[in-house]
Amino acid sequence: MAEFRVTPEALEHAGAQFSTSLAAFDEKVQVANRAVAGLIGGDWSGRAADGYGQGWAEVVEGIAEVRQALAGMAALLPQAAALYRTTDDSVARDAETGSSAFGPSTAGGE
């Protein structure tokens, strides 16, 4: 059986990294959009410019999907951290009191 280990802090850190990456991603997309707008909205016209514009529109759709995925990860990782923290706290409390979701402990021959 595979073992999976993670800490809430690691999940929070990963979520923060995704948020930082998302901000950098947005900045790069803005730069690219300005560059393309300068090309197509400038002196370049004709079939080649139209074809480039259509291709860029497809790229923009893909960019939106990537951005949505990054934003989702940035949001979900801290939520997972909170869930792990709640579960860990609950298990620790149960261990201290000798009870669990399965009922009281019968350790000690009771």
Automatic annotation (TrEMBL):
Which top-level group of life is the source organism from? Bacteria
Q: Which InterPro entries does the entry link to?
A: ESAT-6-like_sf, T7SS_ESAT-6-like
Q: Which residues form a coiled coil?
A: none
Any one Pfam family here would be WXG100
Similarity-based family: Belongs to the WXG100 family.
State the name under which the record lists this protein: ESAT-6-like protein
